[in-house]
Design goal:
Bound molecules: guanine
Strand content: 15-25%
Helix content: 40-55%
Structural class: alpha/beta
Length: about 280
């Protein structure tokens, strides 16, 4: 039997609708909208699309957005000064600096000036550290979206064997920690992992966040597994994930499509982080 397709677009729409209710209630209480500041430095094509989508989502969720579009030539000092101003700006509950920054900037150094309680992306060391310690914090959006998608299947995460392929700071590592927090037994795989297939074949939950088309083939997937595809690979045939969707769906129990799976959830969880940050600052 073919896998059930997890509809990320629909689940993201439900989350945004619930954030909108929170944002409207916030407006009633505070007399101002929740606010997100978005900073884009330079002309990177995909970044411009992502920023446009984030601003559109704010509008859908009754959240005010403050967009700062800065030239490629912007200095690190100018950007750090802007971050300090946004930290002090009462209208701004959360902010994000769209990555990648131009090559002349030290990304981690610049981000370190964001107040942790306004860190919409959950990228800061303090927030990543709190996730590791199991403390409440603003967590990275894509990993939170992945957990929501898994939970939408109705299956319990507790006690499952979960395998995460990819160890990035913004997806692989925090996803593994969130799965662990939900009592899965977690294995992390990466470019140096030997015998990947032997490991993935044991996964009740398989998350691939590598960026390599057709990395996960049907012979690597346990029958009935939940398969979450975080890959975003663009070529002349359009957008595809890491998973050989057509064949894996004949083995898996649940599977996310690309596009329409994890992608829309990242923006929805960003909206939830803004709401969380705004309510924590009340
Ligand atoms: N660039 C690619 N993905 C992201 C993201 O989730 N947040 C930010 N700030 N930049 C990105």
């Amino acid at each position: 039997m073919s896998a059930e397709i997890i509809n990320g677009k629909m689940i993201a729409a439900q989350i945004k609708a619930s954030v909108r209710q929170e944002a409207e209630a916030f407006y009633q209480r505070k007399g101002r909208k929740m606010g997100l500041a978005v900073v884009l430095v330079g002309e990177d094509g995909p970044s411009q699309i992502y920023v446009k989508n984030k601003i559109a989502a704010c509008e859908q969720c009754f959240i005010e957005s403050f967009a700062y579009r800065l030239p490629e030539s912007t200095t690190e000092d100018f950007l750090i000064d802007l971050i300090k101003k946004m930290n002090a700006d009462e209208r701004i509950d959360a902010m994000l600096i769209q990555l990648p920054l131009p090559a002349h900037m030290r990304q981690n150094h610049v981000l370190s000036f964001i107040s942790p309680e306004k860190d919409a992306d959950g990228f800061l060391a303090v927030n990543a550290g709190n996730l590791m310690l199991g403390n409440p914090s603003l967590n990275a959006c894509t990993p939170c979206g992945i957990i929501e998608l898994i939970q939408s299947t109705g299956r319990k995460i507790s006690g499952t064997s979960a395998v995460v392929v990819g160890r990035s700071n913004i997806v692989g590592k925090p996803t593994a920690l969130l799965l662990l927090e939900n009592d899965a037994t977690v294995t992390m795989c990466h470019s140096k992992t030997k015998h990947l297939k032997e490991i993935t074949l044991h996964a009740d939950i398989l998350v691939s966040a590598v960026g390599k088309k057709n990395l996960i083939t049907a012979d690597m997937v346990k029958k009935g597994a939940i398969v979450i595809d975080v890959g975003m690979n663009r070529d002349e045939r359009g957008l595809s994930g890491d998973v050989d969707f057509e064949n894996v769906k004949e083995v898996a129990g649940y599977i996310t499509p690309v596009p329409g799976g994890v992608g829309p959830m990242t923006v929805a969880m960003l909206m939830r982080n803004i709401s969380k940050a705004a309510q924590l600052r009340e």
